[in-house]
Amino acid sequence: MDKNTQGGKAYGQLKSHQEEKLNSINEALLSDPQYAEVEDLASKLDMFKNKYMEFDLNDQGDIDMMGLKRMLEKLGVAKTHLELKKMMSEVVGGTTKETICYDDFLKMMLGQKNAILKLILMFEGMSKEKEQTEVGPPRRKTFSDLP
Questions:
Q1: 64 has which bridge partners?
Q2: Which of 2, 90, 145, 146 could form a disulfide with 115 if both were Cys (CB 3.0 to 4.6 A apart)?
Q3: What pLDDT digit, counting tens, does each position of 79-109 carry?
């Protein structure tokens, strides 16, 4: 069997290793005085870790242009290549990097600056909260519900 293929058990180990790495970064941020004022930091970091892991599929430690494209398409916000490059540049601070590392992702999400990607991800989180409140089949209508 090829070592590079990612089947069930191998993929699980890969994701477990990735989660350990991201958890150690999160733990360092929890003790960082720069983020001491951030409300509910632990749960935010856990949410950001899960979102990042969802799109860093191969555990290379970075989300590349295709990963960003996949992320936005899954959220229903498809972007052109030029728009993706602009978003990438916003997140990594205008450098020539072609990937978003977890540190850059956290700086964007916890920072004061409203990058386009941050706004999209925050909006997606709010829409999921609304979706979760209305679970199950719609209730039966009665005559009193009519206008």
A1: 99
A2: 90
A3: 888 888 888 888 887 666 788 888 888 888 8
User: Does residue 133 fall inside a structural domain?
Assistant: no
Count of domains forming the chain: 1
Question: Which residues touch 147 (CB under 8 Å, ≥6 apart)?
Answer: none
- Core vs surface per residue 57-94: b (16+ CB within 10 A) or e: bebeebbbeebbbebbeeeeeebeeeebeebbebbbee
Range of the domain at 103: 14-123
Here the CATH number for the domain that contains residue 59 is 1.10.238.10
